[in-house]
## 1
Amino acid sequence: MKTYALVGAGYRGLWSYCEPIVQDYEDAARLVGVCDINWKRARLVGEYLRRDIPAYTDFDQMLREKKPDVVIVTTRDCAHEQYICKALEAGCDVITEKPMTTDDAMCAHILETERRTGHRVTVTFNCRFMDFYVKIKELLADGIVGDIFSVHYEWLLDTSHGADYFRRWHSIRANSGSLLIHKSTHHFDLANWFLDDEPVKVNAFGTRRFYGPVRKERGERCRDCPYRRSCEFYFDIDTEDGGRLKMLYKDCEDVDGYFRDRCLFSDVIDIEDSVSLNVRYAKGAVMSYSLTAHSPYECMKIVFNGARGRLECDNAFGVETIRFYDRDGQCATIDRSRVRQRPGGHGGSDPAMRDRLFRGWTEDPLHQMADTRAGAMSIGIGIAANKSVKEDRAVYLSEFLGDFYPEMKQH
Ligand SMILES: NC(=O)c1ccc[n+]([C@@H]2O[C@H](COP(=O)([O-])OP(=O)(O)OC[C@H]3O[C@@H](n4cnc5c(N)ncnc54)[C@H](O)[C@@H]3O)[C@@H](O)[C@H]2O)c1
């Protein structure tokens, strides 16, 4: 039986870790403490789950008193590094939510601390457990397209899902590192995992023309906005998500002043809503990637062009499609119509990943569990892209990861 302490008692912390630990993994895991800068949210975990779970606002005190085997980090992205490193220094292993962190200096601190202390950090990339992506991974690992020469990759977030990033702390670069870190870390990790390769060089462009101060009719937040009756993006914090958001955020606002229904057209928003970039990989593949956070529909489209043909995959309108074109142009469709989505968060990927985290695993043939190297390579593309946009140049990942992985300097 391992003991776990969690820092960051928000949505992900409560419903993806604390609740499952006490309800589904009682035989394997014990939650010994929860910490948050917001004492109300920290306390809420025990109250909501009706368990005696000690709540802290002082992380060091929690570590001293509870001496957990493992610390789970589910704070805002920009705070991951301080807790990962403190936990490692205190002799704990760490499970951290993606993104591992948000910039190159904090990434270096994590890599250095992990090496020096010898304790282990696992980065939770739940997309690696989604059936659709597992199928793509298996096809590529079986060599369906042979050597991969190029990848064309597009993510579309609609104006419900995409907009929600602009209501929350994510919309401030200092918190999330931008969508290129916060959101695209999932996408870049999948690309690295699919290709079984590591990125070398990135060139990127980004703009924001849909959200931010692009219209006159705007307020500070939806709750007291004079335009709430006419705005198509009005968001009712009292009723959304069955009252969960009211309980977790609105009822805790008085402690830290954070509100979760910020106007999408606020002038404090400083992240891009459209990005486009190119990546060169170590084994020679090139990738074009774009992210759109204001699409009329949700979709992921990825195409692999290889020695044996072309694999086209997309999941528009909830229909998963995989087509393979051989060198003669013959098309074979891999039938996904009978694949049932598994129950549980994120298409069943969260429960599958939690089983691995809390019950352990002996075999991992598809390499679904990710370490700090995978964490660094996925945010590495985002960090390089952020630098590329800011400095208007192509950026090598070896500029900030080369000291840890000297082989990167050869490319
Ligand atoms: N893998 C996934 O699919 C997935 C999905 C959602 C969120 N996440 C990740 O989980 C993390 C939490 O996201 P969320 O949606 O739960 O956000 P949230 O805003 O609901 O929760 C974040 C919590 O962290 C706390 N916090 C912020 N700064 C802190 C600090 N310095 N010290 C201690 N606590 C601090 C906040 O008070 C809040 O309770 C993020 O890193 C996010 O990227 C991952």
## 2
Amino acid sequence: MQDRLIDSFMAEQLRSEDDTRSRADGADAESSNRSEKHVNRRNLLAALGSAGLISTAGCLGLLGDHDETGPRADDPTPVPTTEGGEEQTTSVDAEIFDIEWTVQGVTTEVSSNEYLLDVALDEGVDVPNQCQQGFCGVCTSEVPGDGTEYVEHSGADYLSDEQIAGGFVLPCVAEPKQNFAIETGKQDAADSYSAGGEEETTEEPTTEADVETYAVDWTVQGATTDVASNEALLDAALDEDLDVPWECGHGVCGQCSSEVPGPGTEYVEHDGNQYLSDEQVEAGYVLTCVGYPKQDFEITTGVKDEADSV
Ligand code: FES
Ligand code: FES
């Protein structure tokens, strides 16, 4: 319970930071390593301490672990050890599970009150991630069966109940309930998953009957591609092996920010833009990963910094 309060507090703190800082600052932080946003108990304690809120930290249980501060007056009697030094467990003890990361070829021990991603990153395991708050889906992974049997999610906004029941989980907000193997890099598989095993029809901005094809001139790459009105600009560029910047592929990170000759809404229909503001789009910035063409136009990639400064 304490950990859930802490996690809620930390998530709120992150959201608050995101709300208050400028987009430019946010973009810089995102384009560097998102794992730097991994807020741990120590960071939070330091923040509360500097704000004179140590008593709040106490209420939240942040001062809790005995090895950090020593037992509090109302703590239960310390766990006795046997002669061999082996700790006897109590009912309140967290359990430790072996998590086998099949893609990375390593196994980590994860406590039932820790998030899988936190432990993986702490141990240098290369697990894809971005928001670390359950909404971007970049960390989507697969477990051997119904996800609810393997993990306890805390805010898995990205996945539906159906997807979780189908074996997809978000390590950034998932605590283990047993030993299991986990396969990362499953965002696309989860996106196209439906309970019947059929591909979900993704919502396209236009129907098949309305599809038109436009000539998109990539000025930096010196190439022109035909892009259908129901095809994301980024997909078309990558299909043609154009070297265009991108990272999340889901409208979250802003790395694919590009410039068109006028208001973005005249050139592109966005479907899932979570990075650019209306003002930035109006100023001519678009996201190629979730941008669908509405006419022929020129596009200049690699302008994230310029977009951030609008
Ligand atoms: S890192 Fe974004 S949902 Fe897990
Ligand atoms: S690649 Fe991340 S927003 Fe487009």
